[in-house]
Amino acid sequence: MATRKIITNQVAIMGAGPAGLMLSHLLATSGIDSTVIEVRSHKDISETVRAGILEHGTVNMLVDSGISDRVLRDGDRHDGIELRFNGESHRIDFKELVGESVWLYPQTDVFLDLAARRKADGGDVRYSVTDTAVHDIEGKPRVWFTDADGVEYEIQADFVVGADGSRSHCRFQIPEAHRKWYFHEYPFAWFGILAEAPHSADELIYANSANGFALISQRTESVQRMYFQCDSKENVADWDDDRIWAEFRSRVNGNGFELKEGPVIDKMVLPFRSFVHTPMRHGNLFLAGDAAHTVPPTGAKGLNLAIHDVKVLFEGLDSYFRSGSTQLLDSFSSRALDRVWKAQQFSYWMTTMLHTPAEADDFSRARQLGELNSVVSSRHGMAYLAEAYTGWPSP
Ligand code: DHB
Q: Which atom, in ligand 1's list, is nearest to the CA of 350?
């Protein structure tokens, strides 16, 4: 049997999504070496369509840590959103309510910026690896993998970070007796499209209607991203452009507002649920991002939570390697989970407030409009939404 090539470093990172790459970059700025391994190819990750909203804290991390300031040039700052229900739009003015904004900048671009920075800085990032395995997380961890050329490696590290996404293998390393999983299923999914059309509005529109939810988002001047609530078993092949636009019109148009339509160039069904794995650490394994939690997409918290996990984890690792103190590593899980549960609440609330259950009776429909009205008619209600959407201050 061929012997494995040994890589010795401080941190082994499973997953080259935004969480893994951001952590590896932050560690490098402190002189801490890491190897990142990823089962997908760079091309595959960069061609996957993902969500598009960054909290101001996420933008600051990209810019201030030296990844790139492209988000400030190519991204669009949004100072508010529109909630649309009963045929009327209500603006939530983030800037005025909480003094903050978000940026429309797709996750794919975040990935490209992070991957390019790691490459330019000589970071050790291996894509398209196979046969990954993690050993000894309660002692001195070892990670096995085979690289794209078929060479077998063993990483010997002080810590392993599982940033390996919603289908994480790392979380299964944590013994059942030491983990608790929280699940919530929703009776909805999203039908997502990319369409060649101009912007329909300056800002994102979150629309509630008796026919269900719709979200009108954006990508570029000529390509738009939009979603409508559907059944999780919906088949994209059953939806041609005419049927898709009729569905959007029935949920969004009215009172002088008309969507700008065009050819649909991509369509997909996105099922969703809430999931939290606790704690986010066991021994010398830490989990970050989707590996530890999933939120429904309403409110665009997924990527932002992952970046926050990494911020907190970096502080712990940096402090440990500088001073030997484990204090911040010991508090990582509870500090990260504090924000995870706030985001679970916010995403759950936005989802249930804006979506229409198939079996909604007259009471639930009228109550839902009462809830929406109570938000848009109250400065406090709107400020809660604005603070959560733009991102809570990090303690
Ligand atoms: C987008 C996705 C979201 O889930 C959201 O809340 C806002 C925007 C998007 O893909 O543009």
A: 6
